[in-house]
């Protein structure tokens, strides 16, 4: 059940839960302060829209979960962006050259999964979706590939 939240309702809730939000957001130090505040605002807005007390959960419990997921999502996006940017702006010797002899022993699919996992910081779920397998299978393939590289 989603409801429409007015600006006035949002501002009232923001004032009411300001201290609680600051407390929750303080632990996400990988995010810039402005980004933490933005995550808190988005989480509060989503919680105001989607929280259903008929499920027996407190509003603050739901808010905690929304803050966690917003900050986690933003942290993952920042990490991927930083890694991709670092790979694109590094005009010296590409990282693949240093490990090419190890990657050469892998099958193309394994090589692709290892590169996606460790160079682009993809999750096993994202790798699995891209290659049409479950995240457990993607994890097993990468683990086997690392074992083969070490041999």
Question: Descriptors for this entry?
Answer:
single chain; 151 residues; mainly alpha; Arc Repressor Mutant, subunit A
- Identify the overall geometry: elongated
Q: How many domains? A: 2
Regions with pLDDT < 50 over 5+ consecutive residues? 90-97
Query: Main sheet, how many strands, which sense, barrel?
Result: none
**What is the arithmetic mean of pLDDT?**
84
How does this model look, in words?
With about 150 residues, the chain is mainly α. The chain folds into two domains: about 5-90, no CATH class; about 95-150, Winged helix-like DNA-binding domain superfamily/Winged helix DNA-binding domain (Arc Repressor Mutant, subunit A, Orthogonal Bundle). Helix content is about 75%, strand content about 0%. It contains eight helices and no strands. The protein has helices at about 5-15, 20-25, 35-50, 60-90, 95-105, 110-120, 125-130, 135-150. The protein is elongated and about 60 Å long. The chain starts with 6 loop residues before the first helix and ends with a helix. About 15% of the residues are buried. Mean pLDDT is about 85; it is low at about 90-95.
């Amino acid at each position: 059940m989603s409801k429409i939240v007015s600006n006035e309702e949002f501002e009232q809730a923001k004032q009411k839960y300001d201290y609680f939000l600051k407390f929750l957001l303080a632990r996400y130090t990988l995010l810039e302060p402005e980004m933490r505040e933005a995550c808190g605002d988005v989480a509060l807005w989503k919680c105001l829209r989607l929280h259903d007390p008929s499920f027996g959960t407190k509003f603050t419990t739901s808010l905690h979960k929304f803050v966690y997921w917003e900050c986690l999502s933003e942290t993952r996006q920042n990490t991927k962006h930083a890694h991709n940017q670092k790979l694109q702006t590094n005009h010296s010797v590409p990282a693949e050259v240093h490990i090419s002899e190890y990657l050469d022993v892998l099958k193309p699919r394994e090589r692709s999964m290892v590169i996606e996992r460790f160079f682009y910081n993809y999750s096993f779920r994202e790798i699995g979706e891209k290659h049409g397998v479950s995240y457990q299978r993607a994890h097993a393939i990468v683990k086997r590939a690392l074992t083969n590289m070490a041999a």
